[in-house]
Amino acid sequence: MLKDVREESGNSRAAVSHVPGEIGIWIMIFGDMMVFTLMFISFLLGRRDQSAIFEASRLHLNQNYGLLNTLLMLTSSWCVAAAVQTVRTGGTRTARLYLRVAFGCGLGFCAVKIMEYGEKFHAGIGLNSNDFFMYYFVFTGIHLLHVLIGMGVLIFMSRVATGSVDGTHTGYLESGASFWHVVDLLWIALFALLYLLPDLGVP
Amino acid sequence: MDCPVRAAVLVAGLGCAVIRRRITRVWLGLLAATAFSWAVGQGFFHGDQRNAGVVILAIAFVKIRFVILDFMELRNAPLGMRLVAEAWVICVGGTLIALYRF
């Protein structure tokens, strides 16, 4: 933490500016987001070249799974943000409850993804089917890896949020929370790009 | 007070406390925006598909901005850090929309 200024209430308005968590986590987050930015650009460039194949493949995806996973990620992110705010006011027990719900949402996300992958494999669709599915499996696979790491981070956060929590502990919690929120925001972009974006050629 | 009444008051109190938080209102807004994008993607709103794609991408990056500012708490971060985050959202969102649309 650069400045150990804590909010007195659960509201997000702080009197003094404050960098949440450690500066190192922000460097990692920035790098991660840059890599994903290049991946998004690469996907849209590929899409321009093979729009018909990409559109036909996109329509094979189950948008409802994408929607459900987005709702799960947003809810888990809200729980993690609420846990950090609750810890600042000393409510470690409630914070751990929020973190457990967030972990449950993460598990739900993984279950939906496994179900979705299973359906694709069952239909004979794999990484080598075409460029769209290559992007789909690589992007969602890397993201799923982030979710799994993030769930480990949530367990760590739950252990930190016990007993008396000082500024250092709050810093750990803020760092872990920031990582989880990145996992959430990357999924928001993936949901839009892979599942929802219609082909320009469709009237 | 009866037990069920006490429970109802407790739940209502907790609900009020939770809803008073800005992050809860942001979360509800994000859920609504997600449902709206999904509906646009399903073609529930008739119109030019090109505009639908732009709307979907724009909503995604507005959602991302709120996650960064409110969940990641960069709304209260030093100005430079917030500017980098805002610039990332605008540049990446704008680039993706331009790549898609043109």
How many separate structural domains of chain A? Answer: 1
Distance between the termini of chain A: 52 Å
Report the span from N to C terminus of chain B: 65 Å
Protein chains sharing the most extensive interface: A-B, 54 and 51 residues
Radius of gyration of chain B, rounded? 19 Å
Order of helices and strands of chain A: HHHHHH
Shape, per Cα inertia axes of chain A: elongated
> What count of structural domains of chain B?
1
Q: What class would the helix/strand composition of chain A place it in?
A: mainly alpha
Please, how many helices of chain A? 6
Mean pLDDT of chain B: 90
User: Got a strand count of chain A?
Assistant: 0
By oligomeric state, this entry counts as heterodimer
Uncertain stretches of 5 or more adjacent residues of chain A: 1-14
3D structure, described in words:
Residues 1-14 of chain A have low confidence and may be disordered. In chain A, helix 1 (23-49) packs antiparallel against helix 5 (131-160), helix 1 packs parallel to helix 6 and helix 3 runs antiparallel to helix 4 (92-122). Chain A is an all-alpha fold and 203 residues long. Helices cover 75% and strands 0% of the residues of chain A. Chain A has a single domain (24-196), classed as Four Helix Bundle (Hemerythrin (Met), subunit A). The termini of chain A are far apart. In chain A, 43% of the residues are buried. Chain B is mainly alpha-helical. Chain B has one domain (21-101). In chain B, 82% of the residues lie in helices and 0% in strands. In chain B, helix 2 (22-41) packs antiparallel against helix 3 (49-71) and helix 3 (49-71) runs antiparallel to helix 4 (79-101). Chain B is flat. The model of chain B has no long low-confidence stretch (mean pLDDT 90).
